[in-house]
Amino acid sequence: MKSLKKIFALSLLGISLVVFVPAAHAQSAPELNDQIDGLLEEITALKIRLAGVSATSDSVSPSCEFNRNLAFGSVGEDVRCLQRYLNEQGYLLASFGPGSLGNETAFFGPLTKAALVTYQTDNAGTILAPLGLSVGTGFFGSSTQAHLLAVRGSLGGATDIEAVSDQGLEVRLVARPDGTSVALAGAGQITAGQFSFTAPTSTNVSLSGLAFRKLGTLFDSQIRSMYLVDVARGEVVAEFQSLASGIATFSSLNFNVTAGAVRTLELRFDLAGQVVGGETIGWELTRVNTGLEKNVSGLPLATELLTVSTASSSTIASVSVAANEVATNLAAGTNNARVAQWIATVAGGPVSLKNLTLTFSGDANPSDIRNLRLLLNGVEVSGKAQASSKISFVVSGSAVLAVGENTIQVFADITGSPNRTMQVELSQPYDVYAYDITNNSGVAAVLVGDSSLITIDSGATRLQLATGSPTQSIPAGASAVTIGKFSLYAAGEPMRVKFLDAMLIQEGSFDWSINTNVIDDLSNIRLIDDAGNQIGSTISRVLSGSGSGKCSLLYASITCHFGSATAPLEYVVPVNTTRIFSLQADIGKNTDLETLSGSLVSGKENLEGQVSFQILSSANADAPVRSVSSVIEDGVINP
Fold first, then answer.
1. What are the start-end ranges of the E strands in 100-204?
2. Are residues 425 and 481 in the same domain?
3. Would residue 614 count as lying in a domain?
4. One domain, residues 297 and 212
5. CA-CA distance, 508 to 379, in Å (whole number)?
6. Which residues does residue 322 pair with via DSSP β-bridges, in sequence order?
7. Which of 60, 173, 201, 265 falls between 20 and 30 A from 409, CA-CA?
8. With 0-12 CB in 10 A as exposed, 13-18 as middle and 19+ as buried, what is 179?
9. Where are the beta strands (DSSP E) in 551-609?
10. Which residue blocks in 355-514 are alpha helix, DSSP H?
């Protein structure tokens, strides 16, 4: 019998296709199945009526008040009312034919049940959880009815619901930011309206989905795309999943509103170019999915209608953004590095750049990419303190892309993540929000190519003479004299100093290859950093040797060893930090020194990165030659 019903339905479907469907339109298998199921519902309803079943004895009045349970096989105007509600909320029974929006039936069949199951599952917290269920059943009982009536009220033509307590989510329509009432044919990211969401004072709210009903005279096919934009960040947070039978749905949305806070979403859309002037378009917010077991107030909420117009100039502006290559290897610790670049080619008229949203990917830590700067034709127009998965540059003031080629660049400081990768790219056309200045309308950008994948190489170090290293004369008999100051910068990763060698060079004294001569001139040789830490041990009395704590002696110089390859130090310079090392010594009262200078000698494999574990060698750094006064000054410190 079921097979006969299918054959009968297919026959009717074939007739309807011949009569109503243009020959150029080839229907897919899912479309045919939808129409078959819809025809079966209509056929069943007709059979019931032909058999003399009274609708009044098994249904409610057209006012859409639900006074009974509904299930598969139910017949009545309350079924039609339920179907209409599901369709308006984006839970479409069918995309066309019986059961579709505006073509609801009075029979509860497989299409109604499937749509109701999805609705119940999406609202499981309120409908199913009290019953110990997590997946919809398709039975329209007291729990589902209570939820539906609470959020929608009577379905008998009411357009607003009563305000709920402050424990619900409040939705309001915000005035259009551009003040225009025109939608330009062929334009991109046209602002339809802004909607504010106010969370209750005691509960955080997460918006997981929205549905909009199309208003006006435009067809679905004339809407190319739709977006939801976080107004505060200027970032597109969702693109529509479908637009069918005038219902646009956004699912998998993760838009969080903290308790007592207000956040705003802007609805934008792209309009096809072949649209007749004078057509109208608007949108009504009909459904908000949240994790609340409370009501949502303010729905449905409709934007004002926009009137379609054509461009005032010969054509609307166009923007093509092509990725350029940048250096694919950058050392950790590099400042002001170019990490991305595009050439934006504009035609048809100048364009104002309003917002640029970049996607950061790779295994580099976004917090290591800092001080990002967006440049347009060499001029900085926006900035961010550090990277994140989405980097939204909101451009303030005038940032004009002139007709022809324009260069867009992003520079950043690479403060860490050695031996990792990063990529900064435009992933979607809507990530470029640009405005046609002549026609005062959004532009749909075209993206070409991919940004370069950058490898962050191991961090580097810079050892050099520090600013402020002393130059004045050194008095005999002075203690804790700073011979020279040296800076060591650990770029991109913490750097361990395994050992350092300090050289002191003299003129005028006796042969320093004999340690007793050195002892008359110098004692208590040490390295101290600007944080008060000592590097290695103090060499109180110079002894000849190559190990840590000893000095290699030559006629006019000695090289003192603080740590060694076999007895390394545990001293670490923090990441992206400069440490100032002071080479100090006590000067003997009976010294014969005429001049004295110091240096940190270039080391061999004396540094180790604490992230990459690379082995580096420090450079040589020399302090200036200073005269030694024969005037004895006891207790003079750091002359």
1. 169-174, 182-184, 190-198
2. no
3. yes
4. yes
5. 58
6. 343, 448
7. 265
8. exposed
9. 551-553, 557-562, 571-573, 577-587, 595-601, 607-609
10. none
> How far is the first Cα of the chain from the last one, in angstroms, to the nearest whole number?
109
Number of structural domains found in the chain: 4
Contact in structure between 265 and 195 (CB atoms under 8 Å): yes
Question: In which residue are the tokens 């999915």 written?
Answer: 289
Output phi, psi for 79, to 5 deg. -65, -45
Q: Report the predicted TM-score, pTM, of the whole model to 2 decimal places.
A: 0.63
Domain contains 414: yes
Residue 40's H or E segment, with its range, is helix 29-50
Specify the CATH number for the domain of residue 112: 1.10.101.10
Q: Is residue 232 part of a domain?
A: yes
Looking at the fold, whether 328 and 451 belong to one and the same domain comes out as yes
Same domain, 408 and 328: yes
Do 302 and 339 fall within a single domain? no
Range of the domain at 296: 169-309
Of all helices (H) and strands (E), which one includes residue 125?
Answer: helix 124-127
Q: Could you give the percent of the chain with pLDDT greater than 90?
A: 55
**Would you say residue 127 lies in a domain?**
yes
Instruction: Grade residue 313 by pLDDT with cuts at 50, 70 and 90.
Output: low
Burial per residue of 411-439, b for 16 or more beta-carbon CB atoms within 10 angstroms, e otherwise: bbbbbbbbbbebbbbbeebbbbbbbbbbb
Upstream peptide bond of 494 is cis (omega within 30 degrees of 0): no
pLDDT at 164 over 90: no
Give per-residue burial for 273-291: e unless 16+ CB within 10 Å, then b.
eebeeebebbbbbbbbbbe
Confidence at residue 37, expressed as pLDDT on a 0 to 100 scale: 55
Whether the predicted pLDDT of 633 surpasses 80? no
pLDDT in tens, 241-253: 888 889 999 988 8
In the chain, count of helices (H) and strands (E)?
7, 43
Nearest to 145 by CA among 123, 170, 114, 169: 123
- Looking up residue 502, the CATH number of its domain turns out to be 2.60.40
Residues 420 and 524 in one domain: no
Q: Which of 411, 409, 408 is nearest to 387 (CA)?
A: 411
d(CA 520, CA 587): 8
Residue pair 212/283 in contact (Cβ under 8 Å)? The answer is yes
CB count, 10 Å around CB of 633? 15
Question: Is 105 found in the same domain as 205?
Answer: no
